[in-house]
Amino acid sequence: MLTEVQIRLVKGTVPLLESAGVAVTEYFYNRMFNAHPELLDIFNKSNQRSGRQQFALFSAVASYAQHIDDLATLREVVERVANKHTSLFIQPEHYDIVGHHLIATLKELAPDAFNTEVADAWTAAYAVLAGILSGREQQLYTEKRSATGGWYGPRPFKVISKTMESELVCSFVFAPVDGQPVLDYLPGQYLGVKVKPALASNIEIRQYSLSDQANGQTYRISVKRETLPQPGLVSNYLHDEVKVGDVLELLPPAGDFYLQAEPAPTVLISAGVGLTPMLAMLETIVAAGRNTPLWFLHACENRAQHSFVSRLHTLAQQQDNLQRHYWYQQVTTADLKTGLVSAGLMDLGALKDQLPLPQGQFYLCGPAAFMQFVKTQLLQLGVVATNIHYEVFGPHQAL
């Protein structure tokens, strides 16, 4: 437990952290990686280059300092981070390294404000946070290792099929090399995929949403080839170099974004490759025979980039209560004739008389700007915030 003095000292550093911005985390990462280059096998270098990882860490540190006297408010963040960490196989010793370099960074960048007393308070505060996160991660590791089909750490899987689902998205189906069952997952969760592309100087770990319902035998992910603002190292490696028969290492399914158990009216909303966890949810709902109202709403550039469109048509034929609507930036006359496609940005107001606004559960996945745009519309239409669930690719950010 932290003392009142320690809490006061940590909270007193919030203005310092806010004024420093990401300069603190940029310095921290450079310091840590210089001392521990092996950690480059864990951290996503693309997010480092874009600044997203620095921003996420800075936000987490500032938020922790601000709420250190009411840690219950951080429960959702802890769950999200702990799940992400298990997909990277984070261990307790990693917390010791991060803590050492975080405290040293703050001492070096603000020696006057970050005196010995403040440094000691932050050391104690960090130990509390590390204990909470690492403790939850160890629980998750134990649960996944002991469950049917579960395992601990990287496990070799063979690629048994590779299928283009659209112009930019390719699906990979993995079966375990040992031939044993695999852990079930909740629709919406993701896998950690561990690879070493020829062009990479380090091991790369990426998280990809599972795009099918759980079957206990195989996993499927559907990966978009990333081209902008620069080619995605891992996505292009998977598209261009990984073949059927190749063996990759996978971490167990993880993630705190998933379909809720209650059979409420459900609206699945996505853009681009954000469709993948929504498809897993839809497949699960259809297989379970739920007869509550069900909507699948999707936005993408054009028909050529609309993944799984044939499968969605088949599911709609199987599930009478499934309603679909799509928005394309580039439409053809043939698209419009289907009655399912509109041109331009997703406009939920046009469907407000049909959507289950008061009682529905709304799931969002796609670029952060898209989800913010959609969430704003939903709130304006009267949907309560607690009925809006979302997943952000990469380092988490609030909508």
Structural account:
This protein has 399 residues and is α/β, with parallel strands linked by helices. It folds into three domains: 4-146, Globin-like (Orthogonal Bundle); 155-254, Beta Barrel (Elongation Factor Tu (Ef-tu), domain 3); 266-391, Rossmann fold, CATH 3.40.50.80. The chain is 40% helix and 19% strand. The chain has helices spanning 4-11, 14-20, 23-35, 45-50, 52-66, 75-86, 92-109, 116-146, 233-240, 275-288, 309-318, 333-337, 368-380; strands spanning 155-164, 169-176, 190-195, 204-209, 219-224, 247-254, 266-271, 294-300, 322-328, 341-343, 361-365, 388-391. The strands form two sheets. It has a six-stranded antiparallel beta sheet with strand order 4-3-6-1-2-5. The chain has a six-stranded parallel beta sheet with strand order 10-9-8-7-11-12, sandwiched between helices. Strand 1 and strand 2 form a beta hairpin. Helix 3 crosses helix 7 and helix 7 packs antiparallel against helix 8 (116-146). Residues 1-138 form the Globin domain.
Write the layout of secondary structure elements.
Layout: H1 4-11, H2 14-20, H3 23-35, H4 45-50, H5 52-66, H6 75-86, H7 92-109, H8 116-146, E1 155-164, E2 169-176, E3 190-195, E4 204-209, E5 219-224, H9 233-240, E6 247-254, E7 266-271, H10 275-288, E8 294-300, H11 309-318, E9 322-328, H12 333-337, E10 341-343, E11 361-365, H13 368-380, E12 388-391
GO molecular function, one term: nitric oxide dioxygenase NAD(P)H activity
InterPro entries: Cbr1-like_FAD-bd_dom (IPR008333), FAD-bd_FR_type (IPR017927), Flavoprot_Pyr_Nucl_cyt_Rdtase (IPR001709), FNR_nucleotide-bd (IPR039261), Globin (IPR000971), Globin-like_sf (IPR009050), Globin/Proto (IPR012292), OxRdtase_FAD/NAD-bd (IPR001433)
Enzyme class: oxidoreductase
